Amino acid sequence: MFDTGNTAFMLIATSLVMLMTPGLAFFYGGLVSKKGVLTIMMQSFVSLGITTILWFTVGYSLCFSGDVFGIIGNLDMAFLHGVTVDQVLSPTNNIPLIVFVAYQMMFAVITPALITGAFVGRVKFKAYLIFLVGWLLIVYFPFTHMVWGGGILAQWGVVDFAGGIVVHTAAGMAALASVFFVGKRKDKDSIPHSIPLIALGTALLWFGWYGFNAGSELKVNGITAIAFLNTDIAGSFAAIVWLFLEWRKSGKPKFVGLLTGAVAGLATITPAAGYVTLPVAALIGIAAGAVCFFAVGLKNKLHWDDALDVWGVHGVGGLLGVTMLAIFANPAVNPALSPNSIGLIFGGTSFFFIEIAAVIFAAIYAFGVSYGLLKLINKMTPVIVTENEQLEGLDTIIHDEHAYM
Predict the structure, then answer these.
(1) Is the pLDDT of residue 18 over 80?
(2) In this predicted model, what pLDDT tens digit does every residue of 44-102 receive, in sequence order?
(3) Considering the chain, what percentage of its residues have pLDDT values greater than 70?
(4) 280 vs 301: CA distance, rounded Å
């Protein structure tokens, strides 16, 4: 028999995570110029279709079926073979397996979409579609298996509550690789065209993040509740820290800064949401607001054209969140933590180094493989649009559509 309460909650959580992808489209859409808003939004929405197809055909199986050298699953459950409507997730969690399939699929949908904010206005749509499929197959699916599917990192004792390694570090470092590959924008006057759209996107992302983090407990209990509240606390603290740091720097309180800070805090708490106390969540939010703010400043000084600060917010946020988890993971909060998976301040020295090694490995792998994938795609079809196409705008050149008449 299914637990109907847990099942209902997980269906809601799955819907919330799905909503994050349109939320990301609005968030990114507001941050770009008018002539590129549809292009960036379409890159998010198309992932809903492409990734769902890939997840159904091979993705779920490669992540959660079998084990090949601890790196990837097998194809025994390709096309969801063997998944029946009456099958439970596990002996200890009696939600339908098919709900878990759907929930994890929504994570797969949004993760590559995060990368698109880095290469705004510089990549051809055909090349992006190939990159989307390739990146899922050789970056996202292996790391999902290694961390959440019983692979080698899980065997080493690595924990990641909702995606600091799998989602944010991997996407953020892939974003940085894409920036180095595509180069700087030719349009020097590209500025956010709609702050209300950014606010709407942030609201949808923040709302969806409760499903992203609290839902990762896969049932309703006290850990679900603390993950929910930790998410809000970290996002709130980070938003205010970023607001005041930018206010001090520019002399003006900036709404976009407040919104960006919130997303940084939400990303940073993700790996630790179900493993730390409420005061630690506040500390993580403060650290996220400050560290990610200065990371974006460093990016600007180095003239990396990460258009929408994917590396500074998600890449650095993911690295920071995993580090904070490695320090503060508290078995009193979550008894599911093994004696070997406790934070540094509780004596978990080996766990600290394992987590740090895992997130550094993820960062290097995601960066290197993403860069190599773009080079390979460029041999098949041009990745980077021409200077004239950039200046004209990809909404017109590639899609022949206009956001505003």
Answers:
(1) yes
(2) 999 999 999 999 999 999 999 999 999 999 999 999 999 999 999 999 999 999 999 99
(3) 100
(4) 31
In whole angstroms, what is the distance from residue 89 CA to residue 161 CA?
18
Q: Which of 155, 162, 401 is nearest to 266 (CA)?
A: 162
**Reported confidence tier of residue 405, pLDDT bands at 50, 70, 90:** confident
Band of pLDDT at residue 187, cut at 50, 70 and 90? confident
Whether the CB-CB separation of 366 and 169 falls below 8 Å is answered with yes
Give CA–CA dist 180/37, Å, rounded: 22
- Token pair of 377 as six digits: 């795609």
- Contact (CB, 8 A) for 131 and 328: no
In the block, residue with structure tokens 């995606």: 163
Alpha-carbon distance of 277 to 229, in angstroms, equals 10
What gap in Å lies between CA 350 and CA 364, rounded to an integer?
A: 21
Mean pLDDT over each residue of the chain, to the nearest integer: 97
Q: Is the pLDDT score of 190 beyond 80?
A: no
CB 123 within 8 A of CB 158: no
3-state secondary structure of 384: strand
User: Running DSSP on this structure, what letter comes out for residue 385?
Assistant: P
Rounded Cα–Cα distance for residues 251 and 237 (Å):
20
Decide: 395 and 401 in contact? Cβ < 8 Å: yes
**Residue that the structure tokens 């509550």 belong to:** 161
Q: Would you give the DSSP letter of residue 344?
A: G
Please give the single-letter amino acid code of residue 286.
I
Q: Supply φ then ψ for residue 123, to 5 degrees.
A: -125, 135
pLDDT tens sequence across 329-387: 999 999 999 998 999 999 999 999 999 999 999 999 999 999 999 999 999 999 999 99
Cβ(326)–Cβ(352) under 8 Å?
yes
What residue ranges define each of the domains in the chain, with the CATH number in brackets? Answer: 4-209+219-397 (1.10.3430.10)
Strand partners, 68: 72
Q: What pLDDT is recorded for position 191?
A: 87
Residues near 120 by beta carbon (within 8 Å), at least 6 away in sequence = 28, 32, 36, 40, 185, 190, 307, 308
Instruction: Specify the 3-state DSSP secondary structure of 53.
Output: helix
Using the 8-state DSSP alphabet, how is residue 68 labeled?
B
